[in-house]
């Protein structure tokens, strides 16, 4: 099936076109530059930008993919979770397209889409797959028997998401928003010389929160460390702090992901979400999976951060597996739970 997918949960207007399990084109327009001076995404600005970018981005995706709207077999859209006003632009656009073309609409979960995108990169997902989902708003370990209708949460962050921690630490270090890519880049010039805390990995909390994460203590530890330096009138070794922070995050993420694979007898680990673009996380996950005999799947960085291809990829799976389409009346669901794959 030929499926067009629309993503507008945050500041990226993404339109991807997938045929079966092949990505034809992934068009993205981002309003990130408009938010940078506020140090975070401004919902109202994001919604307006989606509205302006939607039609041109759909047109560009079709043109580059070499298809016309009349060729589509289905339309997929992120129905949640995300910013309510931003989601609404995508959902309304997808409904209009599906209605006008007379094709089914599939409202899908943004988080399941971060997992499903790997299908257009590395082929069908083994069932079950263990997924480490690490993004700007979420950090979870998921057991995924079937990405089209059975996603189970083994644990998640009890405070900040991994991407949120990257962005907050970047701000402490005076790096621009969004900070993740800047920390990644700075860390390459630094050394891991500071032993920052690994949340929920020791003591009684570690037992109770075996597959959960906590990054707010780490963020606080980094900002205290930086403040102490500044108070002493000493320069802050930004690259070393970035490298040490990044090492602490990736150590916990990969350790817990591999523990989850072992505990649940799953031999495949998929890593998705914006933080999966991180070069140290990718390298450490590869090393540790190799050592543990686990097969690692991580999409190319451009498919880890938000995009339309991920939505089209999951939409195509819904069609291939014969899942019922969504009602044309579906709402945008800003707090859609990770376990709910479709609307
Ligand atoms: P969610 O998917 O939870 O709704 P989101 O869609 O806003 O959140 P994504 O686009 O999936 O988030 O990911 C964005 C996050 O990924 C940001 O926090 C950003 O800093 C982080 N990120 C992007 N690239 C990197 C990188 N190379 N290293 C670390 N973090 C990164
Ligand atoms: Mg973004
Ligand atoms: Fe995302």
Automatic annotation (TrEMBL):
A single cellular component GO annotation: cytoplasm
Cofactor(s) this protein cannot do without: Fe(2+)
The protein's Enzyme Commission number: 2.3.1.234
Binding-site list for substrate: 133-137, 167, 180, 184, 278
Keywords: Acyltransferase, Cytoplasm, Iron, Metal-binding, Transferase, tRNA processing
Ranges where the Gcp-like domain occurs: 23-312
Catalytic reaction(s) noted: L-threonylcarbamoyladenylate + adenosine(37) in tRNA = N(6)-L-threonylcarbamoyladenosine(37) in tRNA + AMP + H(+)
SUPFAM superfamilies, per database record: Actin-like ATPase domain (SSF53067)
Biological process terms in GO annotation: tRNA threonylcarbamoyladenosine modification
Binding site for Fe cation: 110, 114, 306
Subcellular location: Cytoplasm
Pfam families xref list: TsaD
Source superkingdom: Bacteria
CDD domains from the UniProt entry: ASKHA_NBD_TsaD_bac
Gene Ontology molecular function terms on file: iron ion binding; tRNA N(6)-L-threonylcarbamoyladenine synthase activity
Main location, first listed in the record: cytoplasm
Role according to the record: Required for the formation of a threonylcarbamoyl group on adenosine at position 37 (t(6)A37) in tRNAs that read codons beginning with adenine. Is involved in the transfer of the threonylcarbamoyl moiety of threonylcarbamoyl-AMP (TC-AMP) to the N6 group of A37, together with TsaE and TsaB. TsaD likely plays a direct catalytic role in this reaction.
Similarity comment text for this entry: Belongs to the KAE1 / TsaD family.
Protein name: tRNA N6-adenosine threonylcarbamoyltransferase
Organism, scientific name: Phycicoccus duodecadis
Gene giving rise to this polypeptide: tsaD
């Amino acid at each position: 099936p030929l499926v067009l997918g629309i993503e507008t949960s945050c500041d990226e207007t993404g339109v991807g076109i997938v045929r079966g399990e092949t990505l034809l084109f992934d068009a993205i327009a981002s309003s990130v530059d408009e938010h940078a001076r506020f140090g975070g995404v401004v919902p109202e600005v994001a919604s307006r930008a989606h509205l302006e970018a939607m039609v041109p981005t759909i047109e560009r995706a079709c043109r580059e993919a070499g298809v016309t709207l009349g060729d589509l077999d289905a339309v997929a859209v992120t129905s949640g979770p995300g910013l309510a006003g931003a989601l609404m632009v995508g959902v309304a656009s997808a409904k209009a397209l599906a209605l006008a073309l007379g094709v089914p609409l599939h409202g899908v979960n943004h988080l399941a889409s971060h997992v499903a995108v790997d299908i257009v990169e590395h082929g069908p997902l083994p069932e079950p797959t263990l997924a480490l989902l690490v993004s700007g708003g979420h950090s979870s370990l998921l057991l995924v028997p079937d990405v089209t209708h059975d996603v189970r949460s083994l644990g998640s962050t009890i405070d900040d998401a991994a991407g949120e921690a990257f962005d907050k630490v970047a701000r402490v270090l005076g790096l621009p928003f969004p900070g993740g890519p800047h920390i990644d880049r700075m860390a390459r010039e630094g050394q891991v010389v500071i032993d920052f805390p690994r949340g929920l990995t020791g003591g009684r909390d570690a037992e109770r929160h075996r597959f959960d994460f906590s990054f707010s203590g780490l963020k606080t530890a980094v900002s205290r460390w930086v403040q102490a330096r500044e108070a002493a009138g000493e320069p802050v070794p930004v690259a070393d702090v970035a490298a040490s922070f990044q090492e602490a995050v990736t150590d916990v993420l990969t350790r817990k992901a591999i523990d989850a694979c072992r505990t649940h007898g799953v031999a495949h680990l998929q890593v998705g979400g914006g933080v999966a673009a991180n070069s140290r996380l990718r390298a450490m996950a590869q090393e540790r999976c190799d050592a543990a005999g686990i097969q690692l799947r991580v999409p190319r960085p451009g498919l880890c951060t938000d995009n339309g291809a991920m939505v089209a990829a999951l939409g195509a799976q819904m069609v291939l597996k014969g899942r019922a389409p969504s009602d044309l009346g579906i709402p945008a669901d800003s707090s859609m739970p990770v376990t709910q794959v479709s609307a």
